[in-house]
Amino acid sequence: MNQYKHVISTKAGNRCLGPCYCRDHERKRHFMMFTSILLVTLVTVACGFHLRGTGNIDIPSALSVLQVRVEGNLLENNPLLTTMKDTLRSQTNIQIQESGDVPRLILYGEQSDSQVLSVNSIGKVDEYLLKYEVSFRLVDKEGKLLSPPQTVKVQRDHQFDRLNVLAKEREEQELRREMQRDTVQQILRRLSRISIQEIKPMESPMNTDQHR
């Protein structure tokens, strides 16, 4: 019996009391970690914190009703237009109208490009820099500017793997969609800080001379 107690004591000193005890201890440790993460999440949500791109964005009341257009768009389901409208509906209090005497958000100048960042020892591309940009302006029902036009630019690094071309192409497509979503988010954040004021067009020299 004393020998048996000595064995148990020795194992306890080595932090192991048998397979069952170790498994129970591991389960308890995982449970405590899960509980801690859950509590932190609940407290964070209760404090009103939102992850980037998931919270509501306050837009000036002057833009509470808005039309959204992509300049020169000929597609019925333009990806940029669809993303912008969906984001406006889900993250702002803006009411979108297809017609009427309301301000218009015009998206234009959409560009997507790539640039070689690095090549390997045999001159093959290893990494690209993906670029994406969109300009926007706010106009009234007559097309007069309500604020200066702005341009949003985003970029991402993209590793290229010649041994897994198809997977990398899908990854690039998803990365470009993410860049578009990020651009829309940035446009909304700029709209939330914008000062609405009608900008009168500059007079031509001829008209200026006539008023003298």
How is the topology of this model organized?
Layout lengths: L1 H12 L5 H28 L18 E6 L8 H13 L3 E2 L7 E16 L5 E15 L5 E15 L5 H28 L12 H7 L1
Parallel strand pairs: 1-2, 1-3
Antiparallel strand pairs: 3-4, 4-5
Largest sheet: 5 strands, mixed
Classified by CATH, the class of the largest domain is Alpha Beta
CATH topology of the largest domain: Double Stranded RNA Binding Domain
Give the number of helices. Answer: 5
Please count the beta strands (DSSP E, at least 2 residues each).
5
**Structural class by secondary-structure content:** alpha/beta
Taking the alpha carbons of the first and last residues, their distance comes to 117 Å
**Rg, Å, rounded:** 29 Å
Q: Uncertain segments of ≥5 residues (pLDDT<50)?
A: 4-14, 40-54, 198-212
Number of separate domains: 2
Arithmetic mean pLDDT: 77
User: Would you identify the CATH architecture of the largest domain?
Assistant: 2-Layer Sandwich
Q: How would you name the CATH homologous superfamily of the largest domain?
A: Lipoprotein like domain
- Binned strand content: 25-35%
How are the strands of the largest sheet arranged? 2-1-3-4-5
Helix content: 40-55%
Order of secondary-structure elements: HHEHEEEEHH
Categorize the overall geometry.
Answer: elongated
